[in-house]
Write a structure and sequence with these properties.
Elements: E1 18-22, H1 37-47, E2 53-57, E3 69-72, H2 75-79, E4 85-87, H3 93-104, E5 121-122, H4 126-132
Helix pairs in contact: 1-3
């Protein structure tokens, strides 16, 4: 069920990219076995320390794609045409590493993501996008 807490939508145009990690009803829970969810979040934070902000939010409404991570561009990245990138099924430590490498290089609008991340990228429904930005 989509029910983000107040302020769940990533801040637009911050000085650094923002990585929003869903930890709602499915993401980050035993419903997604075989992944140390605590380690995933710790590894994200350690790998981008100083280069990006990592936020945790409630359900982002794309439960069929758990674990979901949204990468928001920095202000500079947005000026260069960067847009939020939604990544689903991020249930592999290598995918987490690919995300942090990309964000460390600038993220959306400033650096091309590793090609493998194309396998994780998806567009959320208009309903989800609208509810996130209300």
């Amino acid at each position: 069920m989509f029910n983000p807490p107040p302020g769940a939508a990533p801040a637009r145009g911050g000085p650094r990219p923002t990585i929003t990690v869903c930890r709602g009803c499915c993401c980050g829970t035993p419903k997604i076995p075989g992944l140390d969810h605590t380690a995933q979040l710790r590894d994200l934070r350690q790998a981008v320390d100083g280069a990006a902000t990592v936020r945790v939010t409630g359900c982002l409404g794309a439960c069929e794609r758990a674990n979901v991570i949204v990468v928001q561009p920095s202000a500079e990245g947005r000026k260069n045409g960067g847009a939020p990138v939604w990544l689903g099924l991020v249930n592999d430590p290598d995918a987490t590493t690919d995300i942090t490498t990309w964000v460390g290089n600038g993220g959306p609008g400033l650096a091309d993501p590793p090609g493998i991340l194309d396998l994780y990228t998806f567009q959320p429904s208009r309903r989800i996008r609208a509810e996130l930005h209300d």
